Amino acid sequence: DLKSCSRCGRIHPRAFKCNVGRKYEQTNERKLRSSSAWTRKAKQIKEDAKGLCEVCRDRGIYTYNGLEVHHITKLAENPDGLLEDENLVCLCVQHHKEADAGEIDADYLRELAKERGKQ
Fold this sequence. Notes:
The chain is built from five helices and four strands. The protein is α+β, with helices and mostly antiparallel strands.
């Protein structure tokens, strides 16, 4: 069952939600992540981690690709933790997904962040 879309003029399945022209609400979290201070901090954390995933390195594996900086305590819970070194850890994409899903212990990640600070 198809219908003509009033947003883009194309034909879509009736249940399809077209996003053309929709405005997305700029959340506080999104604003924080788009700041230049966050960009500089994320770069610094990656450099401090020697360009490696900190979980992989702890396991004796050297992963240099697809690195992201993870907030151990989520920004929604603690916006002040945006730039705190002890709340940030450099992770590969896979470990970042696991950390977001709660599959990697937050205390373990905090220990990795502390160790990075000592190097």
